[in-house]
Amino acid sequence: MNLVILGMPGAGKGTQSAFISKFFDIPHISTGDMLRHAIQEKTKVGLEAESYINAGHFVPDDVILAIMAERLAEDDCKKGFLLDGFPRNLVQAEELDLMLKKHNLKIDHAINLSLEQSEVVKRLTSRRVCKKCASVYNVELLGSDICPKCGGEIIIRDDDKEEVIISRLKVYTEQTEPLVKYFSDKNILFEVDASVPIDDVWNEIKKMLEK
Ligand code: AMP
User: Among 41, 124, 132, 149, whose Cα sits 20 to 30 Å from the Cα of 190?
Assistant: First the structure.
């Protein structure tokens, strides 16, 4: 099963992707996680991506397409995969289709987590992450700056700062939202209300994918 998960930043793509990946035993491929890892490791891709990410802009398509072509060629993708944060615009979506076609593959379903913009801003400004293990928390529920899972330092992602969030949402509306129509036109789009509790969102997705 080859899947894509769409939704505004903060809609819960990372959380739901972890459930999907575990339940269906397919790799969760997040371009955002790959880029953050590259930044931490100071690789060539990381050094190139950092300024774009911190400004709330997209990393150039050629950089993203190169890392994705490499990732999708890895063995674990043979049993299926879940793409989170990619494709992010129409160019990437079309290039992905071409990449998959070469291997006689296609995207089977695209899941769109829909959420009001006001709720997105509220979620992102209260999001905190562990610098060490990347666990995600809500600042109002956490009450400490130490990760309860690994003891790592809890930080605000640079791109979750308010001025960057505004830029990310603008870029999302202009570039990523058209993908909803792109996948809907292929009759593979599944809309999910992401404003309900996490478990309810997951049950909805699971029910659809098990069909
Ligand atoms: P995410 O964790 O998916 O919200 O991604 C964090 C940031 O990484 C985004 O705001 C972009 O700057 C960059 N990024 C992630 N995926 C892509 C992509 N497919 N194309 C361009 N930039 C991306």
Answer: 124
